[in-house]
């Protein structure tokens, strides 16, 4: 048997370090067994999936040196490797399950589903809905079908309580309660498959032998195992890696730690160091050395050395490791070349100079005016915002609303950023100039710089959002009470 592993990210946002972490371990496992590593794009969420996000995933993984044998950009005999290009496959398999009595057509309306879940919750039961909860009379089904109402296809799951036993490469036998497993939607009303159906079908057709993924998927394992049984297919070996965590042990999230690979690239971390650090997330070399290359990791990889304790993603430890790589592995000439490639390449200069040339009188004016564009976290102080004359809560509200708006942007260019922020200012009935003033300081560190929207465009989404979060933290942060109030106000805009 040839070992085949895969990573299957969704192109719905910034490329996440968690994706790189999973990709790294799948790659190393495949290489350790002389197998193949596959990249598959799971873009069933058509409303949020974008081509730019997909390209960012490809670019960032390749920047880290995590190359794949098959994928949407390199092809392969098991393609296509985008789920949106495999749509003709999933419907037929879903219908096969319906015909076999393993799935059913469900015409339940959203408000009915909510009511059913609330009833179960009030009775102290799990909110997982079963076939018996969802079934309608034949007359009602006919009525809704004839009226052209939307429907989904759901899988049949055991009604009775009991234990589902799932084998895991690291954890052994895992027992999960069937009462917590709902009649999962397999095919949505728009004809798109859910992750659960597409994932199982694609893994089978692409002959994936080992599914190495995050432990957040453990609760979905019974559904996947059941689907393999329904189709009569052999199930791949499952291996659930521990989740990356913030220093406070919470799940790694962008609200507490930068999570985008592009952020670390923009910050000037070396790809070798970031890959090295991700390799240390729950795994260790046989000799326990902390600094090692991807090649070293592949040569020594044994997945049984993975520790199930939640690995802590500590940016300060990453900085320390990155410093070791800079000092020990780069000559001065190589370091100079890295600096040119990172910040002072022709493409970057061509983007920055149109904004700075009119402000320059000498060449030495360039460095101080461009410094914030090639800096990481800015040294902000709450006193810098005092001259704006805004009350503390108004200031935090403005920055938080702007951050949520920027996090929702799929296209990141000057016009898109400007339209989004101006639209928000208009809704808040604040003059655009006053609204942008605190963002000016948050993003550039001063009020005397190029247009804040131009600055955001040049910095990119990851660094811009990180700086706005840093500004919020500098001002004392948003309390839980205020956050709930802000969220409600923001949703009502």
TrEMBL record:
InterPro entries: aa-tRNA-synth_I_cd-bd, aa-tRNA-synth_I_codon-bd_sub2, aa-tRNA-synth_I_CS, aa_tRNA-synth_I_cd-bd_sf, Glu-tRNA-ligase_bac/mito, Glu/Gln-tRNA-synth, Glu/Gln-tRNA-synth_Ib_cat-dom, GluQ/Sye. The keyword tRNA processing does not apply. It is found in: Cytoplasm. ATP binds at residue 254. Residues 334-472 form the Aminoacyl-tRNA synthetase class I anticodon-binding domain. Keywords: Aminoacyl-tRNA synthetase, ATP-binding, Cytoplasm, Ligase, Nucleotide-binding, Protein biosynthesis. The keyword Nucleotide-binding applies. Gene3D superfamilies: 1.10.10.350, HUPs. Belongs to the class-I aminoacyl-tRNA synthetase family. Glutamate--tRNA ligase type 1 subfamily. This is Glutamate--tRNA ligase.
């Amino acid at each position: 048997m040839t070992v085949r592993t895969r990573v299957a990210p969704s192109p719905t946002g910034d490329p996440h370090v968690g994706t790189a972490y999973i990709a790294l371990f799948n790659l190393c496992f495949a290489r350790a067994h002389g197998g193949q590593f596959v990249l598959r794009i799971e873009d069933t969420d058509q409303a949020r999936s974008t081509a730019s996000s997909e390209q960012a995933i490809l670019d960032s993984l390749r920047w880290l040196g995590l190359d794949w044998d098959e994928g949407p950009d390199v092809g392969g005999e098991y393609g296509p490797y985008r789920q949106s290009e495999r749509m003709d496959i999933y419907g037929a398999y879903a219908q096969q399950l319906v015909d076999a009595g393993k799935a059913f057509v469900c015409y339940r309306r959203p408000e009915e589903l909510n009511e059913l879940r609330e009833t179960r919750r009030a009775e102290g039961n799990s909110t997982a809905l079963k076939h018996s909860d969802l079934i309608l009379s034949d007359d009602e089904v006919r009525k809704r079908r004839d009226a052209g109402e939307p429907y989904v296809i759901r899988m049949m799951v055991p009604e009775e309580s009991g234990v589902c036993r799932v084998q895991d490469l690291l954890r052994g036998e895992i027992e999960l309660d069937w009462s917590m497993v709902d009649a999962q939607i397999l095919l949505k009303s728009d004809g798109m498959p859910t992750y659960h159906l597409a994932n199982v079908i694609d893994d089978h057709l692409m002959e994936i032998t080992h599914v190495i993924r995050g432990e957040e998927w453990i609760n979905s394992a019974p559904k996947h195992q059941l689907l393999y049984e329904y189709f009569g297919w052999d199930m791949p070996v499952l291996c659930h890696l521990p989740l990356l965590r913030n220093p406070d042990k919470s799940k790694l999230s962008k609200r507490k730690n930068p999570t985008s690979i592009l952020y670390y690239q923009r910050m000037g971390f070396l790809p070798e160091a970031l890959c090295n650090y991700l390799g240390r997330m729950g795994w260790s070399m046989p000799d326990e050395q902390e600094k090692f290359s991807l090649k070293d990791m592949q040569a020594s990889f044994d997945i049984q050395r993975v520790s199930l304790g939640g690995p802590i993603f500590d940016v300060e430890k990453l900085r320390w490791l990155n410093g070791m790589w800079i000092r020990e592995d780069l000559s001065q000439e190589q370091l100079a070349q890295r600096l040119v490639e990172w910040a002072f390449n022709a493409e970057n200069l061509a983007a920055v100079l149109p904004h700075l040339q009119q402000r320059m009188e000498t060449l030495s004016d360039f460095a101080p005016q461009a410094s914030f564009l090639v800096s990481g976290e800015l040294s902000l102080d709450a006193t810098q915002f005092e001259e704006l004359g805004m009350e503390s809560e108004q200031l935090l509200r403005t920055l938080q609303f702007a951050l949520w708006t920027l996090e929702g942007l799929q296209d990141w260019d000057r016009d898109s950023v400007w339209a989004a922020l101006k639209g928000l200012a208009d809704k808040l009935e604040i003059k655009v100039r006053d609204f942008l003033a605190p963002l000016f300081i948050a993003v550039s560190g001063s009020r005397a710089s190029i247009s804040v929207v131009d600055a955001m465009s040049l910095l990119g989404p990851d660094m811009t959002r990180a700086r706005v979060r840093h500004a919020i933290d500098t001002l004392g942060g948003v309390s839980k009470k205020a956050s709930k109030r802000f969220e409600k106000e923001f949703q009502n805009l």
